Amino acid sequence: MLLFQILNTNRASVTDLDGKFTIQAKPDDVLVVSSLGFKTVNVLVGDKNFFEVIMQEDQETLDQVSVVAYGKSSKSTLNKFSSST
Predict the structure, then answer these.
(1) 18-51, pLDDT tens digit by residue?
(2) Contact at 8 Å (CB) between 55 and 21?
(3) 75 lies in a domain?
(4) Which end of the chain has the lower number of beta carbons within 10 A, N or C?
(5) Among residues of the chain, what percentage have pLDDT more than 90?
(6) b/e burial code for range 47-57 (CB count within 10 A of at least 16 → b)
(7) pLDDT of residue 18
(8) Which long-range contacts (CB under 8 A, 24 or more apart) does 43-47 make?
(9) Number of domains forming the structure of the chain
(10) CB 13 within 8 A of CB 25
(11) What is the mean pLDDT of the chain?
(12) Which CATH number do you get for residue 10?
C-alpha cells in the first residue's frame, strides 16, 4: 500500500489492491508518495494523470520499526474425567 498526499495539505489517498488511486490535484501541486520501509518520493503533478514511481528501500526506517500487539488471553480449565466399570 502506498500513501499519496498533496504537499502541505490534508488531501491524501491510498492505493487499492491494483495499485490505483485518485486524488484531486492542481498542476503546480507536489505529490508526496510514501510507504513503510521505503524512502519518500516527491513528484510534481504537472499535466500528468499517470505516474510511474520507483521506490527505494530505506533500511534505516526498517531498523526503527516496532510492532506492538494488543490481545486478550484467557486461562482455560481442563477437567479430567475417569470412569470405571
Answers:
(1) 888 888 999 999 999 998 888 999 999 999 878 7
(2) no
(3) no
(4) C
(5) 34
(6) eeeeeeeeeee
(7) 87
(8) none
(9) 1
(10) no
(11) 80
(12) 2.60.40.4130
Q: What's the CA gap between 10 and 20, in Å, rounded?
A: 19
Strand partners, 30: 44
d(CA 19, CA 61): 22
Inside any domain, residue 13: yes
The whole-number pLDDT of residue 26 equals: 93
Q: Which domain holds residue 38?
A: 1-59
In a domain, 69, yes or no: no
Residue 83 counted as domain residue: no
Rg (Cα) of the chain, in Å, rounded?
24
Return the ∠ at Cα 42 (arms to 41 and 46), rounded to 5°: 140
Cα 35 from Cα 2, distance rounded (Å): 5
| Nearest CA among 66, 53, 57 for reference residue 38 | 57
Strands, E assignment, 2-85: 3-6, 12-14, 30-34, 41-44
Residue reference for cell 489492491: 17
